[in-house]
Amino acid sequence: MLYRGMDRARLDPAYNNLAAVPSSSKLIAEWTARSARFRERHHGHLGLAYGEQPRERLDLFLAGNPAAPTLAYIHGGYWQMTHQTKETYSALAEGAVSHGLNVAVVEYTLAPEARMDRIVGEVRHAISWLHEHLRDYGADPGRIYVAGHSAGGHLTAMTMPLSAVRGAIAISGVYDLEPVRLNYLNEKLGLDEAEVQRNSPMLNFPPMAGPLIVTYGTAELPELCRQSVDYAQAWVERGLPGHLLPIDGADHFTILEAMARPEGELMQVLLTLVRG
To answer: What domain range is 233 assigned to?
Structure first.
C-alpha cells in the first residue's frame, strides 16, 4: 500500500517525530519538571472527572478573574504514548494564565486500550463537560477555546463541529489519518479504512465553525508541514474562518514555547481570537 508514492519503509520515518528531534526526550522531561513547578505555584482543580474512565480527567487552572475565557488544551503523543499526560503539560497554561485566561488541560484514554472513535469521543465529551460545568467554578461556559499539539492538533480539529468551541489553534497536527494507518503508529492504533474516514479532519469539515488557526514549525518533518498546509487551504476554501500560521525555525517540540510563553507568537494569536 502506498500513500503519496510512499511505502511503509518511507512512511515510518516521515511520521516519526521523536526520531526527527534527537532532543525530544530531554525536552519532554523538561516540560514535566516545569509543569510540576507550575502546579506548585498555581493550585488548580486537579483530576476533575469528565467521564468514567481513569484518563477521562482534566486539570482546571483558574485565572484571577474566573469568568474569563477558558482554553482547553489537548496534549499529544500520537494517541498512544503513556508518558504524555495532562501533568506533563501543565506548563502550557503559563502564558494563558498570565494573560488572565483560565486553562483546562485535558487527558484521554490512549491506544491500544481505546480506538480512535473513542479517543475523539472522549475529547469531545471533555469540551461538552466544560460547557456544562464551567459555571460551577465561576467561569464563563460560553467562551471556550481549544488548542492542541500533534495528536492534540488532530483532536482539536475534531472538536470544531461543537457549538461550544468559539475558536481554536491546531498545532502540528495530522489531519489525514491514512498515512498513520499505513505506518508503524497503527500497530497500537489499529485503524481501519472506515475509522480513517470518520476521524480525519480533512474528510470531515463542519458546515460552519469558529476561527481555526492551523500552525506548524518550519523545521518539522516535511509530511507534518504538508498536512498543515493542505488542511488549512482546504478549510479556508470551504469558506470557514481561519488561516495557516508557520512558526519560523520551530521543530515539532520547540513550537510549544510559542504557546507557553506569555509573549509567544501562538499566545498572541490566542489573545486575538479571544478578543475578536
So the answer is: 8-239
Q: CATH code at 179? A: 3.40.50.1820
**Structure-block grid coordinates of residue 229:** 498546509
Under DSSP, the state recorded for 11 is H
Query: Nearest-CA neighbor of 106 among 64, 48, 23, 145?
Result: 48
Cα distance between the two ends of the chain:
45
Residue 154 located in a structural domain:
yes
pLDDT in tens, 93-131: 999 999 999 999 999 999 999 999 999 999 999 999 999
**DSSP letter (8 states) at residue 3:** B
Task: Tell me if 33 is assigned to some domain.
Answer: yes
**Grid cell of 80 as nine digits:** 498512544
Q: Are 212 and 168 in contact (CB under 8 A)?
A: yes
Q: How many domains is the chain built from?
A: 1
Question: Which conformational region is residue 185 in: left (phi greater than 0), alpha (psi within -120 to 50 degrees), or beta?
Answer: alpha
